[in-house]
Specification:
This protein has about 220 residues and is α/β, with parallel strands linked by helices. The chain has two domains: about 1-140, 3-Layer(aba) Sandwich (Rossmann fold); about 150-210, Orthogonal Bundle (Arc Repressor Mutant, subunit A), CATH 1.10.10. Helices cover about 50% and strands about 10% of the residues. Helix 2 (about 20-30) links the parallel strand 1 and strand 2.
Length: about 220
Amino acid sequence: MKGRFMSSMRKVGVIEDHSSVVLGLQAMLIDHPVVEVVASAGTVTDLLDQGFDLDLVLLDLRLSDGSSPTTNVDQLRAAGLEALVFTGAESPYLVRQAAKAGVLGVVRKSEPADVVVAAIAAAAEGHQVVTTEWAAAIDGDPGLADVELSPRQRDVLALYASGERADRVARMTGLSPNTVNDYLARIRVKYAQAGRPAGSKVELYQRAVEDGLLPMPEHPRR
């Protein structure tokens, strides 16, 4: 009887930089009858190297190794694993990347525990998990071509477009001013090639907002 029960368990791995998040997920699922967290790591490679037979992987969008959602999901799928994004990030750009790579859905860390558990249980059975936020991020701007920026380029763009001068961005990021200017030039070229003008600082700000690198501006209160 025990063997049959254990064989029905759905085993989940977590790719996440923060141990507190993993502990929270384990606590959420500790009494779940068929889903359990059995492994965690900070990168896809480290999780796969553990050799667990997993039914689902929970994947954060922003990892300290700078890897992209596309690369991570592709690596997981090549290993025969499906992914559910579990993240606090609110970047439509990264969400679109994950969606195009073929994840089962996106769940925010801010969701109530029962919502998170239900999403994990559904995804562990192979079901799609569609949330309003995910649908809005995917469908809200289908005409925007994705622009592949490195994590460092995204940092530079976010700081510069938010109003910082290039020399201050250099100090804040530990880069040289020449490197910052080179990054900005490359960023402008990439957006231009995608048909999204970014010649001026105002346009760079607009592109950064569109791709979730900066928050949407609040409407003034009346």
